[in-house]
Design a protein that fits this description.
The chain has 322 residues and is an alpha+beta fold. Helices cover 48% and strands 16% of the residues. The longest helix has 25 residues.
């Protein structure tokens, strides 16, 4: 496995906080891992590869830095592993916005589109993916798919991990526990580009499903079809769709016990914007994450191969290629 060198890391506010945490709980087995080596261009998965070298236990719980949980979290994620066939556990997440219209907009997409879509998908066809916000994996299953070193070779390491673990014969389970992910964007352009990247990652992992997901955005389709020649029936259909979305908006908040107040007046707007992001995501074979540009077709080959394979990182474009 090629290692992509990084500059020497210095102290940061995050490191200071972790060191304070370790000092505050000396009886806990806590360690800070600072390692600038990169097993691949996916920096998150490469960082996990560095950390996992020192992990001592059989169940590995992964969580993003913007995730909020309660004391029941670890027990809920660990419980399914009592069944020896379970290789990974997915944790659904709900958006928790900070103050501001952009953050509210982003959280609304997670809560009103992602959550219901995942639940319907799991009910219809089961689950073979996990989420980047929070998940858990059995060490044996992780080792069988090449570990985080292999996952660091492409984008969407979360979906890839779930899919590859499932392909090795392990069961993937959706936990009944739902964590919160903080939505803090204040720039609408950045939020839109993130949505495009999510759509492109979904296209890389499950191209047919991502293409057919257009049916989850009926409002913009109805507007395109019915508004050029408006009729009473057409306007009633559009009104019924908006009413159904608002009903879903309230139901999701009740089911997941969301602390944020309902905002039904915002419901129609994100659906149209997300449809635009879906359309943009269909163009091109590359997606950018941070300073790295990934090849969607190369990632598909990696997923199909299901085992570590050599990749090359372009020095000019940072493109992941076979």
């Amino acid at each position: 496995m090629r290692s992509f060198s990084e500059p020497t890391l210095t102290t940061t506010p995050t490191i200071d906080v972790v060191q304070q945490l370790i000092a505050a709980f000396p009886h806990r087995n806590l360690r800070l891992v600072v390692d600038g080596s990169l097993a691949g261009p996916n920096r998150k998965a490469a960082n996990l590869a560095n950390i996992c070298k020192l992990a001592q236990y059989d169940i590995i719980v992964l969580a993003d830095s913007d995730v909020r949980v309660d004391p029941n979290c670890i027990a809920a994620l660990a419980a399914p592993f009592a069944e020896r066939t379970v290789g990974a556990v997915a944790c659904l997440y709900k958006g928790l916005p900070v103050d501001g219209p952009v953050a509210n907009f982003g959280a609304l997409h997670i809560n009103d589109w992602l959550v219901p879509s995942v639940l319907v998908d799991v009910e219809l066809r089961g689950i073979d993916f996990v989420f980047g916000a929070m998940s858990a994996v059995r060490r044996q299953a992780l080792d069988e798919i090449g570990g985080f070193e292999h996952l660091s070779q492409g984008i969407a390491e979360d979906s890839a991990m779930g899919w590859l673990v499932s392909r090795k014969g392990w069961t993937v389970v959706l936990s009944p526990y739902a964590c919160e992910t903080v939505v803090a964007e204040r720039d609408f352009a950045a939020l839109f580009l993130r949505e495009v990247r999510w759509q492109q990652a979904e296209r890389a992992c499950r191209p047919l499903d991502q293409f057919l997901s257009v049916v989850t955005y009926p409002l913009p389709l109805l507007l395109l079809l019915l508004l050029p020649q408006p009729t009473v029936v057409g306007l009633i259909v559009i009104g019924m769709e908006i009413a159904a979305r608002i009903a879903l908006h309230h139901q999701v908040r009740r089911s997941l016990a969301m602390a944020t107040p309902p905002q039904p007046w915002l419901v129609p707007v994100p659906e149209c914007v997300c449809f635009l992001a879906w359309a943009v995501s269909l163009v091109g074979n590359r997606t950018r994450w941070g300073q790295t540009t990934f090849s969607i077709s190369a990632f598909r080959k990696q997923m199909t191969a299901g085992s570590p394979s050599p990749v090359r990182l372009s020095a000019q474009a940072g493109a992941l290629e076979k």
